[in-house]
């Protein structure tokens, strides 16, 4: 492609100045031509065209089945937040932060916080301390701790534990979707607490209060590795309790790849998946060929302006306002490397669905414009699990736990978890006999 541009530019220069004599090599002439302003503009246009093609898989479903849902946004009043470990006079949440906090690779000063992760972490901790009480005065024990990865990154994690008045019967590890964070699921976590499940949430790399440029993911395999390590930590802290995973969207894809590992599979009693990003196809075969190249050359490049209103992922206007006015939710355009990583993990999952053998429940809205509900049907059909369930919600959108019918969806999830607990208890009873 570069040679074609160079030849065209050289030919133009020759026609303009016929008296000009080139005595340098052809390679040198091509380099000069490539450095010309006209050629550089052509190259930029080529790159932009490719990036547009690369991003179409993540926007195509939206434009094909777009619905007219709008949400107003609010200005972000939170700037340069300081880490607050106490919630002052508010007695509602119980927050514990380990004294020996994990050291981070980056400074927490505003001047040194080049990727913004220090401010995001401070805000995430502050929110945990200011968590409001539920109307029924239900109190979870809230803990926040920083988790060090094998790469030296620091991830923000938190847990919600049922009060002592409720008998604990299991553990749920929760993984959020692309561009969001675990704190968005606090109401869901407290509902699980009320039914005897302790909940752990992990902000994966580049998200929420974790290290990294906001919403930039150099490798989703890193996120899978982090998820495995976090699961092992959770299981070690809660011996004897059945452990489940919950994943939403890209978080569901990470969970799926993690539990396909035979070592992790033995730790898990089952997984719940909402709107999983199982099948994401490039808009054209050439995009799949060129995507690795551009993700290497321009990994953090963003095509287009920020989308503060966001895509319609819920039919609840208040839920949309809450999401897209949240400073911990990324509203900018997807980064090239992140998009390529989603294509890569999606391709892997499509080729390996039969490797899934753990019990699972998959839920998807038929009007989802972000991920494909038909891919969830394919997951259900091809997975080797003998205990598997699927439910499609007619007309529902992407963020199922933030739809107007969220209470019924949560009830569906809790009933499924409870049924797996009963099955385990039956097996354990037979084993003792």
Automatic annotation (TrEMBL):
The chain crosses the membrane at residues 39-58. It comes from the Eukaryota. InterPro entries: AB_hydrolase_fold, Hydrolase_4, MAG_DAG_Lipase. Residues 169-405 form the Serine aminopeptidase S33 domain. Keywords: Membrane, Transmembrane, Transmembrane helix. Pfam families: Hydrolase_4. PANTHER family: PHOSPHOLIPASE-RELATED. This is Serine aminopeptidase S33 domain-containing protein. It comes from Macleaya cordata. The lineage of its organism: Eukaryota, Viridiplantae, Streptophyta, Embryophyta, Tracheophyta.
């Amino acid at each position: 492609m570069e040679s074609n541009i160079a030849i065209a530019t050289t030919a133009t220069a020759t026609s303009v100045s016929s008296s000009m004599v080139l005595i340098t090599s052809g390679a040198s002439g091509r380099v000069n031509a490539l450095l010309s302003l006209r050629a550089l503009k052509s190259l930029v246009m080529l790159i932009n065209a490719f990036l547009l093609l690369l991003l179409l898989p993540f926007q195509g479903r939206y434009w094909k089945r777009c619905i007219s849902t709008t949400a107003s946004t609010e200005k972000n009043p939170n700037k340069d937040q300081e880490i607050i470990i106490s919630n002052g006079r508010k007695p509602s949440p119980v927050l514990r932060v380990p004294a020996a906090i994990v050291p981070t690779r980056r400074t927490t000063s505003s001047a040194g916080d080049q990727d913004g992760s220090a401010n995001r972490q401070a805000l995430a901790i502050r929110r945990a301390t200011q968590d409001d009480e539920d109307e029924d005065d239900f109190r979870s024990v809230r803990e926040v701790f920083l988790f060090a990865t094998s790469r030296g990154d620091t991830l923000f994690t938190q847990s919600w534990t049922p009060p002592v008045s409720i008998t604990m019967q299991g553990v749920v590890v929760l993984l959020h979707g692309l561009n969001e964070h675990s704190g968005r699921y606090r109401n869901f976590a407290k509902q699980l607490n009320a039914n005897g499940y302790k909940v752990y949430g992990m902000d994966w790399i580049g998200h929420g209060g974790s290290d990294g440029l906001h919403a930039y993911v150099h490798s989703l395999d890193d996120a899978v590795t982090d998820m495995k390590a976090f699961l092992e930590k959770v299981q070690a802290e809660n011996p004897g309790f059945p452990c489940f995973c919950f994943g939403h969207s890209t978080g569901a894809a990470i969970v799926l790849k993690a539990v396909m590992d035979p070592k992790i599979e033995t730790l898990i009693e089952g997984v719940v998946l909402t709107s999983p990003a199982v099948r994401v196809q490039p808009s054209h075969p050439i995009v799949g060929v060129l995507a690795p190249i551009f993700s290497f050359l321009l990994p953090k490049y963003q095509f287009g302006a920020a989308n503060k209103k966001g895509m319609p992922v819920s039919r609840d206007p208040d839920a949309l306002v809450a999401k897209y006015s949240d400073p911990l939710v990324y509203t900018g355009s997807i980064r090239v490397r992140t998009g390529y990583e989603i294509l890569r993990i999606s391709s892997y999952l499509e080729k390996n669905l039969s490797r899934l053998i753990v019990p699972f429940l998959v839920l998807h809205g038929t009007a989802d414009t972000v991920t494909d509900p038909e891919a969830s049907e394919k997951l259900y059909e091809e997975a080797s699990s003998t205990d598997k369930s699927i439910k499609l919600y007619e007309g529902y959108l992407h963020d199922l736990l933030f739809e107007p019918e969220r209470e019924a969806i949560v009830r569906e999830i809790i009933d499924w978890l409870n049924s797996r607990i009963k099955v385990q208890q039956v097996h354990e009873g037979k084993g003792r006999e």
